[in-house]
Design brief:
- There is one protein chain.
- The protein has about 450 residues and is α+β, with helices and mostly antiparallel strands.
- The chain has three domains: about 120 residues; about 140 residues, no CATH class; about 120 residues, no CATH class.
- It is built from ten helices and 19 strands.
- It has a 14-stranded antiparallel beta sheet with strand order 9-3-2-1-6-7-10-17-16-11-15-14-13-12, with helices on both faces. The protein has a three-stranded antiparallel beta sheet with strand order 4-5-8, with no helix packed on it.
- The chain is globular and about 75 Å long.
- The mean pLDDT is about 90.
Length: about 450
Amino acid sequence: MAAEKLIDSMRDGKLELHCVSVTITQKCQGGLVLKGYGVLKTNKVGTIYLEFICLEAKSKSGSVVTGFHESFPDDPFDQSQKLYLEAKSLGGDHIYAEEFSLRISIFNRAAPYRLHIFLHEIYIIESHKRLPSSKNYMFFELMEIPCIPTNKMNTESSSYGEESHSWNETEIQIEGARITVVKRNDRVEVRATGDFDADELYHSLLFYFGLSSGRLPQPYCLIKHVGSEIFLYFKTIRNGLRGKKIPAPITDTAVGEGFPACHYAILTSILKVKRNNPLRFNSAYSQWQRVWHSFQSENNIAILSLGVAVEGLLNDVFIPELKRANVDQELEEAKTALINGIGKLDARHDHKQTLISSVERWGNIHSAKALTILVEKGLVLQDEKKAWGDLRNSAAHPVFKENNEASELKARERISKTLTLFYRLVLNVFDYDGPMYEFRVSNKPEFVKREHVQVLDQN
């Protein structure tokens, strides 16, 4: 009951959790120690913060003074300086937070004083030894609606005897887990039960929801039951990003062409890739996030970020695979022989190294060459490759141009085709074999299926 009330307060942006004791510490030698009490709240933009009354302060030496403030941690990349928060609520719950920073005014030389500390998340741990540990459980809520095909109908009854029916639930069986996604009027509830790794499935679901809907999922609460322990997380969100979206590559309303099975198969593949090839997952997810955020800003930033995102995917995922599949043994032998010959020359060492590094680059696959190979394989179209090249060059070598209708149309055409190319690459990482949108200017996107091209080793 207490958890439900806290989740409701997070959804409404009205969290107010009074803490009778709060301790903030650093575990390093001579680290900061603050003790007092406070209230955990959310502000109007969705950030969780602690309104802290410090009654006791120790070991404030060694911090960096910036202007009129002392900053903690001094070095954010030094794990030994990390800050930890532990609080006890009025209800007796122990609340934790970490990976945050704070600034203390130099005028607060002696307690008591007040601080506002911003937190990216807080969590509570409960131990229930009687709970069965054979199955895991995960639950989270968000307000961004994922565009995934629904396959179950629910009936709701009012106190007046009225009934309403709605196809608002999706159930997906994936490996040892059963996932249900229910779209309520004011939120989306996601549950998973079975045998699964909670962190692995959680991040896979967020990417699946985001990629398929064009929205940025922002869960504000997360419950994980692993073994005999229950973890309850409350997370900072950005209210300003709600309702914003970018064009998505697939739809939740298609029939035929393998739908909805090929849609659900994306999640299965995302989970598999995250487990077996984490670099591919991390690259695809981070590049998608880069593109999403850039589309919320000025056009020139979107142009630069989209071009770089394609290049990042190629460098991280496709070029290493293409190198293995396109080894020219004769060229490699010739390079080795030439490098050995250069090493025997009677010349300055730095001159020889310059020649050797030049020879070593022979046959390297750069981004443009990689796209040429993918065009030959049929994954990418020639006009998509050209649009990316023009987009990348215009961002890397900007010149002043008159902002008129013709230049705007040309920029939008390049963005549309490059976005199609980007999604082609992302979906191929996850072995997607189904239709997707091809974006064009002044026309509705065309939902088409190309012949599947196996580029990456999926093992």
